[in-house]
Amino acid sequence: MGATIYRGALFVFYMKGFIKSMENKYIDGEEYIDVADIFGENVFNDAVMRQRLPKKTYQKLKETIRLGAQLDVETADVIAHEMKEWAIEKGATHFSHWFQPLNGITAEKHDSFISAPMSSGKVLMSFSGKELIKGEPDASSFPSGGLRATFEARGYTTWDCTSPAFVRQDAAGATLCIPTAFNTYTGEALDQKTPLLRSMEALNDQAIRFLRIFGNTTSKRVIPCVGAEQEYFLVDREMYNARKDLIYTGRTLFGAMPPKGQEMEDHYFGAIKERVASYMRDVNKELWKLGVTAKTQHNEAAPAQHELAPIYEQANVAVDHNQLTMETLKKVAARHNMYCLLHEKPFAGVNGSGKHNNWSLVTDDGINLFDPGKTVHENTQFLLMLCAVLSAVDKHAALLRESAADIGNDHRLGADEAPPAIISVYLGAQLTDVLDQLIDTGTATHSIKRENMDTGVNVLPEFKKDAMDRNRTSPFAFTGNKFEFRMVGSRDSVGEPNIVLNTILAESLSDICDRVEASEDKDAEIHDIIKELASKHERIVFNGNGYSPEWVREAERRGLPNIPSMVEAIPALVSDDSVELFEKFNVFSKAELESRAEIEYEFYAKTINIEARTMVDITRKQIIPSVIEYTTRLANSINQVRSASDKANVDAQEEILVQVSDNLKLAKEKLDNLEKKIPVAKDILETDKRAIYFHDEIMKAMKELREPVDKLEMLVEKNAWPMPSYGDLLFGL
Ligand code: ADP
Ligand code: MG
């Protein structure tokens, strides 16, 4: 495979803009942190390379990045040497190829810089170009979905030089981390990054064609940009440690609602508690050092829920940075004696967590192709782009929905707290009006103007309102100059959604360019295409309340797919349309898609299996013994009261005893039922059928067990319950 390096441009100007736009001084306890000073201090970024690399080497690397040429070994050797020297100055003893295999985490294998001892018994610190460019982790224990037989353990990691290397400092010391792609011996992708880079190339090729049609001859690259807003929960570490369900599965499997949930809406954007604020400060500091542009932070809707958003950047770097953000959120929480829950639904009955994927297309010379400009109805280029997006999303709605499928997300989508499982596009009043004009007459002659904001208070400054309101219930919303895909789960990589977005848009642009390039009268052809696509794909536009039951019926009438669960979503990955799409743009081969579907089914089955067994374990070893002890105590006390006085009325105690015992009996029955059902899965050999069994049968049995157990929690005294309650967890910081 060799060192195939992605053609891309390092968006240095984003970073510079970020530093300028940010407050330089930031209070850290007593001391001020100079953000501009620490930002990127642990990153082998453009500035460091320019300073440390010989001019010729630096230019060669930049050329490689720009043109996607192969990096020769001599150049790689020089870069590796300088990278090592720089990393050692930061205290690094090890280097690691850092990659994202298909199990949702980032993986790393650490090698120290030491070379074989010399005759003097001393060692040298070395790092060669070969070690920088290519790694060979034992790949046999990473999921491959049948792409690589386990006896063929070879897998390769290859340096993605468009995503900068960084030094990570933690309890393990300092490690030089090199962002890499992960492939099989024969070059098939075993990770998120490889197809993402391929999809960025595909989109670039088609978007450049698109720009040339409109007479742009100066832009050289079109780069998808992503800003991923990350939601998470924080809980106290000791309480976390007392809950086996959180430890084994990342979510609570039992738990009665506390007297107060999120109904007061007093947490969202509320004042941040000291303990949390101090945590956020440390998270920011760590992220800034790693060159991650952590920008916005606030409380979210549920108690104990928070959000962090970075400044957007090119998609592959944004995906890496989101992985780093998740790692950092967890790591810093441990230092603050807290635990960060990234699961999509840690608590039933309160909002879960998502990840809004903000996505736009920006040229190397800074033109945002999703920017409608001041007079949108006259902006033919934008209108054609908009139609391309609508057509892509409508045609591949099921695939896009699949890209956000995650086990935890099944609990959120369509549950009135996150978008429904139906894909639709929110355009807002202004664009919808223009679209309607296009459908009616083929031309738009006017657009709704932005109005002045009238607050009725003279001292408040006047400003123009946005042309559109927001709609939080839409899964795919146009928000001014970007689309916000709101379906993604909080724990999931944003790799897959962006692979899909990039590729479906590449296809749509390619179809449009084929037609325009072949036509005699280009303007007339563009006009026709806009009218045609707007009319054909208008059905995907929905500006109303996505949480309402009417929308579910309306969507059905429009023929839009409604795919409620992950197991039902997976087939879209390997549908004929998807295979044709991905093969045409060299993003996935059919075999790669099939392997991914296989991995997802397997992951689903394994996860629910762990959840089910954890429930059994907790019920048998903790809940039933605690409840028996409680009933015994209660019975003894009833007897004691009775023997002390036959006038004392013990009806209430007896009633509680009966209620508790009834629910205990029910819980025991449901426990036996679940326990009986789990081993059946082993005999279902096909992975998809096994996953469906877990979804249909095991999940149902789990739900049935949870009901009497949650009732028991409400019936027995607080001290008798063997684990912290929802109230303790959600309001315990
Ligand atoms: P919201 O009000 O939607 O919660 P946030 O400020 O939390 O907004 O997050 C918005 C995200 O969108 C940020 O990560 C921001 O950098 C990103 N963003 C802004 N403009 C663009 C763009 N043109 N392309 C991609 N992402 C963008
Ligand atoms: Mg936000």
Labels describing this entry:
733 residues, alpha+beta, nine-stranded mixed sheet, six-stranded mixed sheet, 47% helix, disordered N terminus, binds adenosine-5'-diphosphate, binds magnesium ion
What do these coordinates show?
With 733 residues, this protein is α+β, with helices and mostly antiparallel strands. Helices cover 47% and strands 13% of the residues. The chain is built from 23 helices and 17 strands. The chain starts with 11 loop residues before the first helix and ends with a helix. It binds adenosine-5'-diphosphate and magnesium ion. Residues 229, 307, 309 line the site of magnesium ion (MG). Residues 229, 307, 309 line the site of magnesium ion.
List the helices and strands and how they pair.
Blueprint: H1 12-21, E1 25-28, E2 31-34, H2 35-38, H3 46-52, H4 55-67, H5 73-89, E3 92-99, E4 107-112, H6 129-133, E5 134-135, E6 155-159, E7 166-170, E8 173-184, H7 193-213, E9 222-236, H8 237-241, H9 244-249, H10 274-289, E10 294-299, E11 305-310, E12 313-314, H11 315-335, E13 338-341, E14 355-363, H12 380-395, H13 397-403, E15 425-426, H14 428-441, E16 476-478, E17 483-485, H15 495-518, H16 522-537, H17 549-558, H18 566-569, H19 576-584, H20 590-644, H21 651-677, H22 687-715, H23 726-731
Parallel strand pairs: 3-8, 15-16
Antiparallel strand pairs: 1-2, 3-4, 5-6, 6-8, 7-8, 9-11, 9-12, 9-13, 9-14, 10-11, 14-17, 16-17
Helix pairs in contact: 7-15, 10-11, 12-15, 12-16, 13-15, 14-16, 15-16, 20-21, 20-22, 21-22
Bound molecules: adenosine-5'-diphosphate and magnesium ion (MG).
The site of adenosine-5'-diphosphate has 15 residues, from strand 9, strand 11 and strand 14.
